[in-house]
Structures are given as structure tokens and as C-alpha cells.
Predict the 3D structure of the following.
Amino acid sequence: MSSLERYDRQLRIEGWEQDLLYSTTAFIAGAGAIGCEVAKNLAMMGIGRLILVDYDYVELSNLSRQLLFRDADIGRGKAEVAAERLREINPQVKVDHHNSDIRDLEEDVYRDVDIVLSCLDNWGSRRWLNSVAVSLNKPLIDGGINGFYGNVQVVIPKRTACLECQSMQLIPREEKLAECTLKRRRPEDLVNDLREQGIDLSVELAEELFRLNIKTVYDLKYARLDLVLSHKEGEIFRAIEELRSKLMPKIPAIQSVASVVAGIITTHAIQLIHKDRLGKSPTGLIVYDALNSRLTRVKISRDPACIVCSENEAAPINFPFDLRQTVLRLKEAVASVFGFPDPEILHADRRLNDDDVLYDAGVRENDILYVSTKRLYEPVAIRIVT
Ligand SMILES: [Zn+2]
């Protein structure tokens, strides 16, 4: 078959097995600078199937880095356009695309995946994808860039540290603080928080945001507008967008660094696909400093108590708490211990209401409660101890 001729040069690499690539399905989260590069690399190399996911649309400012997009694509869904281009690059590769948030995909999409490549630009989504990969026992490679720096982490579930293992060190400080402030908030609190950052907000607008469940600076930055607003128009949408651009100046990024980081991700993906026959992929964190051409490997240990990857992650975590307190107080405690901005508490399949006192809601000592959050794929079990 002539199809092998396409891969002639890589077939000359000792240990290379094209069949292993043909039979691999790679999941790529994010079709930005890194995601486009990784997808292009794997398509050219002849991966069997790619699943591309991105909810975003092509913008002019993407075109300096995201090689699969052209001027005429502005306004179109990134995942769809990227899929079209990848099929042109290598028609032998099967490409599926989803113009959606990774959290909205059917579970079936993840089931056939052999390797997960995380090319995302925010901590919340990366943390969630890490928990999916560990839960479903799929190897994960996570990569990110910031200016002339890049980083890559290879996660082999239950064997190497996952992203959550060191989350309290690695979560960007500002997000951690924001995730931990789930106090009984009033619109005035949001006004004050923004004022501290030099941003003016009227109380009226803050009240309107509260009605949309946007209560913290964190919510303002990351709330899914498609979920809180019925249509992406109107004054409130524009106001949120404007606040967002003030709060989140875009991260500086350059194509050459994205290419290197994507090259590192792809190389280790190929190693994992070859089941170490091309050498073992490194574990821990790889940090790339472009201006000094320096690659540094940082050892990261597994946390035996990690809520995502510990051996007995299903075992409930003892959580000291007074049953005469309300569910809201418990949520605040949970938010600050685990760094969840949005915990929901379930007791025997029943969602507990904020104002309920735990004892009155039927919760007793040693009962197990389940905490769900948009940060993790599976709920965390806690055992209430007093
Ligand atoms: Zn872990």
C-alpha cells in the first residue's frame, strides 16, 4: 500500500511502529497555539484518529500563532476549521471535532480515547481534564505557555503525580484566593473587590450580576456566559466582556515557544503510544526557557492523599464539621480546603440547600456526603466527623 510511503522517513527510526499510531485515538483539548501545533504534528505523523475540542471562535489575534486558521476563518468555530485543515494535511487521519466545552461532552467521547493532550489556557479546565484522565485511566500530557516560557507535564494515572497532586502549589495564587472566598456575599463585596483592583462597578450592575450568580471576581472572569445568559447580546453581556478584558489582560504568547512546547508534547505522546519502545517519557514537570534555550526537569511527587489520584480516592475523607451549622458554612469550608469555587453537597442522592442546618436535613455523624464541582469529573466523598 502506498500509504506507507508517506511515512518513509519516520519508519527509518529504530523501534518506530506505524501500526501503533494508526490504531491510536488522541484527544486534543484546545485548538489554540499549542493545540493546533500538536494536532498538525500528529496528523502529519499518521495518527489513526484525532478528537478536537474547543468552544471558541477564530479571531484576528489568533492568526499570529494558530497555524490552522486563515483570515477567511474569522468568526468560525475553531474545532471545525481545524478539523477541515487537518483532513487536508493528511486525508488518512480520521478527525472528529466538537465545538463545545470539554465539560459538556458525552462520556462516550472519552471512552475510546487512548491518550489525552491538554492544550488549554486556564487552570479550571486543566484541573477538570486531569481528573477525567485519571478517572478513566488515560495517560495525559498537559502543556502551557507564557511569553518565553513553556511547561509540559506527563501524567500516567496512579503511577506519576497528576496535576491535582501539587495543585495547592501550582494553582495560580490569585485563583486559589478567589476560589477560597465563598463567604456570604453581597453585591457591595464585589464592588469592593473590584475597586481594590482599580475597577469601578456600580452597585446596580453588581446586583444584576448577582442575579446571574456572578458573585466573585473569579466568577466574573470564568463564569460560562452561555449558561448564565440566554443570548450573547445586550448591555449586561457587553458589561461583563468589558470587565473581563480589564481583569484578564491576555497572556503574552509567541508562536516559536508554542511550537517547541507542542514538539515536546508530541514527542512524549509518540513515546507513550509506543509503550516505551522509543524510551521512557520523562515524568514530572518540564520547564522550557526559550531565551536561554534551557530545559529544566522539576521532580513532582505524588500526593498519597490526592483527591484525584490516590490509591483509595473513593474512600471518604474525614471532614471535621459541626452538624448544627448550615450547608452554606460547609460549602465555605469545603471551598477553602479543596479550592472549589462552586461546591454542591449531596446526601444520599439529595442536594442539600444552603440554608439547611445539616442535622435538620438528616445528616448524622459519620454520614458520607458527596461534593460535586465543575473542577472535578467525579464527586469527592467526605465523612462528617464532629
Ligand atoms: Zn494526584
The chain has three domains: 2-169+252-298, 182-247, 317-385. Residues 317-385 form a domain with the Structural Genomics Hypothetical 15.5 Kd Protein In mrcA-pckA Intergenic Region; Chain A fold (CATH 3.10.290.20).
